[in-house]
Design brief:
Length: about 230
């Protein structure tokens, strides 16, 4: 999609000389085959599809004309509207409390996050996909985010996102930075204990929601690697 937007933007500027710059954004929406009943069997329809609303790949580009040249002012790839919940293995204990703190400590609570992840390349041309080994697909970013979420004992959303960013930069050294927008939609507890069961009862949280916005850079990756080495030595 990044290569397509680059092609369309450059073609637009080459066609209309009176235009100095163009900004384009593309969204790659997923559709899944819908079920149908045929010959007394449930099958996948070749004609009807469900719109998958959980996540979408997004790409944006800003091109500017400089004389006879067309330069890339900015370019970003991202995956948006990713919603993940981890039902166990999250703790929120030991935080600083004062007279305004009403949030209870919980050593094992569900964590439900809304997440947008954007990434920028060291070499902007790598985003075009002309060298497949240097192109970073949104599906790979999604899988890394899910895997890190599964692996970690999560003390906070900030810690989780930081670890996801470091893992992405570690996996893809051709990237310059990873950017995050996240929201905390963790459910409110209704029933704390169910006799004879591990489960609890939750309900949708009331607004407002916690919101985080930050970037993880290669410098952050170096710092994180140093900390992990020190921890192993101890």
């Amino acid at each position: 999609m990044e290569g397509f937007l680059d092609y369309v933007g450059r073609s637009f500027l080459l066609k209309y000389s009176q235009i100095d710059s163009v900004k384009l954004t593309g969204e790659h929406l997923s559709f899944q085959e819908a079920n149908m009943f045929e010959n007394e069997e449930i099958k996948k329809s070749p004609l009807v599809f469900n719109h998958s609303r959980n996540k979408k790949a997004v790409s944006s580009i800003h091109l500017i004309r400089h004389g006879q040249d067309i330069n890339v002012e900015s370019r970003e790839s991202s995956i948006c509207d990713l919603q993940l919940i981890k039902v166990s293995g999250n703790s929120f204990v030991g935080f600083i409390r004062d007279e305004y703190t009403t949030l209870p400590e919980d050593g094992n609570l569900p964590l439900f996050i809304y997440l947008n992840i954007g990434w920028n390349y060291e070499n902007s041309e790598d985003a075009l996909g002309e060298t497949p080994s240097l192109y970073v697909a949104s599906e790979q970013i999604h899988d890394i985010a899910s895997s890190v979420f599964h692996e970690l004992e999560t003390p906070s959303i900030q810690n989780l996102i930081y670890r996801i960013g470091c893992r992405i930069l570690e996996r893809f050294p051709q990237l310059q930075s990873v950017n995050f927008q996240s929201q905390n939609h963790t459910w409110d507890t209704v029933v704390e204990e169910i006799p004879g069961e591990k489960g609890k009862v939750y309900t949708e949280p009331k607004p407002p929601f916690g919101f985080q916005l930050f970037s993880v850079t290669k410098e952050d990756l170096k710092v994180n690697s140093s900390r992990e080495k020190e921890t192993k030595l101890k």
